[in-house]
Amino acid sequence: MTTAASHALIRLVERNPSISAAEIASELVPPPQFEHASFESYRPDPDYPSQQAALDRLNEFAGAWRAAQRPGGFFSRKRPARIELPGVYLDGGFGVGKTHLLAALWHVAHGPKYFGTFIEYTALVGALGYAKAVELLRGARLVCIDEFELDDPGDTMLMTRFLGELMAGGTRVAATSNTPPNALGEGRFAASDFLREIHALSSNFETLRIDGLDYRRRDTEGHAEALADDTAVAHATEALAARGHAVSLDGFDDLIAHLATVHPSKYIKLIEGVEFIGLEGVHQLSNQNAALRLVAFIDRVYDAEVPILASGLPLDQVFDDEMMAGGYRKKYLRAMSRMIALTTGELPPHD
């Protein structure tokens, strides 16, 4: 691996972070790019009326919290909007604004409230234990779950039981999940899959379908960018470091191997303080476990808005044909979309 020794470059493979359950819980807030997400800043695509319909319905869903903010609160003459069900599920493909709407709802809600991805909640349960995790979140007014995973029966059953206990105590739940798009941007919607997998809770959820095209593919050529070779990555990262940026530089194989030694709940700490990530020698993966760890890592990098400079195979081509035809296709498609954004500078706006 080429080494840029003149300036201090961070090696992610030398980091072995730890994270407590309390730290995981404190991270259960919208990612930085959604810090100011609001219903007003959501821009529905006029070609897809379901986007405006979902926006209107979520405004109604948030009505009770808004009513409490008005003079007189719940005792004012104007009755708050009625929430028919305690749960809402945003059903749509990539890049249609589901996460923006989810974050906007979180910002309107009164606390205590939590926002995280499916893997972050399962990590919390893993770190604390089931009973303590339930106790920590008990009493929350709202729990938002982004990218609910439907391909792991064990984790899905765990989360269904977990949410059931919270909802029994009055917690409202809002969730999304990404579904794989077919040709021409047409999404295969997964509401029936979601409701089937959480059958014990399905009657508590209202489904809002959101059609549309992936904005991340609207403004790019559809491929991740790759630098000419390892030397180009080394020079680029060294130049950024020389200008005072916190930059990491690792070999792709080294990083993939290191991810196997770090729990996915700690990936956010792995990149803490890093402004740019350099990767040398990217190539296609043949091990599905390694591929899934990369997906989890890319999710955290994307949330943290850290650009990637890479050489070798364009990052969106690292998953082989067998993986793309398998049960984790939706995860790989999401990661590919995000890796395009991370390598082309097309980070904002976000889903």
Automatic annotation (TrEMBL):
The keyword Cell division applies. Transmembrane segments: none annotated. Keywords: ATP-binding, Cell cycle, Cell division, Nucleotide-binding. One of its GO terms (cellular component) is cytoplasm. One of its GO terms (biological process) is cell division. Pfam families: AFG1_ATPase. The keyword Cell membrane does not apply. It comes from the Bacteria. GO terms for molecular function: ATP binding; ATP hydrolysis activity. Coiled coil: none annotated. This is Cell division protein ZapE.
